[in-house]
Amino acid ABC transporter permease
Amino acid sequence: MNLPNEADFFGWVLYLLNKYGMIFLRGAGVTLMLALIGTLIGCIIGLLVGVLRTLPYNKKANPVFKILYKLLQFILAAYIEVFRGTPMIVQAMVLYYGSKQMFGVDMSAMFAGFFIVSINTGAYMAETVRGGIDSIDVGQTEAAKAIGMTHWQTMFSVIMPQTLRNILPQIGNNLIINIKDTSVLNIISVTELFFSGNSAAGAYFRYFEVFFIISVIYFIMTFTCSRLLRWMERKIDGSGYYSLVEIDMMADPCGHNPVKKHGGKQTWKK
């Protein structure tokens, strides 16, 4: 394929797609993998941290446990504030280069990418989970305790199923943000979509055309993920129309077997 004219924008777009299309697709695959796995691990971290931050403080507990409780809460709060209060690009530089310089840990760029996205997402998700737990009516926690459930049983059997539905939109937002924010990992040479596009643009100095292609690919990925997550929300919500059970097991106190209603009339078996 011959080189297009200098001013032929769409000609250059087609030429670059033809020559670097597979490179763009591989970069998009790395971006999706980093975002999906990083968001999944980050959600797990966020759930654990969020639940630990809601642990009740027992004033009558042993002084050692009180100290451990306060120390745990301080560490969790520091983790959240540090990773929410600094840019991911700075975190990538500090963790990737700092771990080697300070501790001699020579991690691969991809491992560092997964690690950075995961712990960054975990910090945001921890506050999302805490807010989701606080949004559940306190009466449900009191009712669970009244029937003898422990704090962990209450969390994972009563509170968390409702919390997960409430925070699902935020989980989707974090996934979409991570798809875009993985572009900062090019600073540590992770070959994601932005890195691939930057390499292709430098070959012919056609930055506008290349990054037009890159922006379209990013939009396709984020739009598709947002539609899939919206579909998942509707599936979890279920139908807006419900039909009542047609059999009332308590309708006859004499122990007769109830049968389904026919034509608006209740019939019975003896």
